[in-house]
Amino acid sequence: MEKYFAISVIPILMAVLLVVFATAYNKYGLIDSQTRETVRDPESCLYFSVTTITTVGYGDLIPTKKARLYACIEALSGFVFFGIFITMLVFTLSAIHQNNKGAKP
C-alpha cells in the first residue's frame, strides 16, 4: 500500500493549491470581463483557480494586475502536477498489471 501513497497525495496537494490560489485571487481580485467590475467572492475565485490550473481559461474572469503573477504560477503548476500525476498513474497501473500477471491462481 505504501508504494501507492504518492499517487494518492497528488490530488490532495492539488486541492490545497486550488484553495491557496483562490485565496490569493480573493485578496487581489479578479475582473469580470463583461461588467469590468472587480470580483472577490469565494465561488468565483475557486472557479477561476480551477480553470487556471487546468489551463482551460474561459476568459469570463481576468486576473487583476496584482493577481497575474499568481495566475501564471498556477498555470505552470498545473502543467507540472498533471504531468507528474499522469506519469505516476501509468507507472502504478503498469506495476499492478505486472503483479497480477505474475500471480496466476
Tell me what the structure shows.
The chain is mainly alpha-helical and 105 residues long. The protein has a single domain, classed as Helix Hairpins, CATH 1.10.287. Helices cover 68% and strands 8% of the residues. It has a 3-stranded antiparallel beta sheet with strand order 2-1-3. A hairpin with a 5-residue loop joins strand 1 and strand 2. Helix 1 crosses helix 2 and helix 1 runs antiparallel to helix 3. The radius of gyration is 18 Å and the shape is elongated. The relative contact order is 0.15. The model has no long low-confidence stretch (mean pLDDT 90).
Main attributes of the structure:
single chain, three-stranded antiparallel beta sheet, 105 residues, elongated, mainly alpha, 3 helices, Helix Hairpins, 3 strands
Would you kindly provide a brief summary of this structure?
By secondary structure, this protein is mainly alpha-helical. The chain contains 3 helices and 3 strands. The chain has a 3-stranded antiparallel sheet.
Shape: elongated
Largest sheet: 3 strands, antiparallel
Overall mean pLDDT stands at 90
Strand proportion: 5-15%
CATH architecture verdict: Orthogonal Bundle
How many strands appear in the DSSP assignment? 3
| Helix/strand structural class | mainly alpha
* Oligomeric state, counting identical vs distinct chains: single chain
Number of domains: 1
Unreliable runs, pLDDT <50, ≥5 residues? Answer: none
Element-level helix/strand string: HEEHEH
Radius of gyration: 18 Å
Number of helices: 3
CATH topology: Helix Hairpins
Largest sheet, spatial ordering of strands:
2-1-3
Q: What gap, in angstroms, lies between the N and C termini?
A: 22 Å
Kindly provide the name of the CATH class. Answer: Mainly Alpha
Fraction of residues in helix: 55-70%
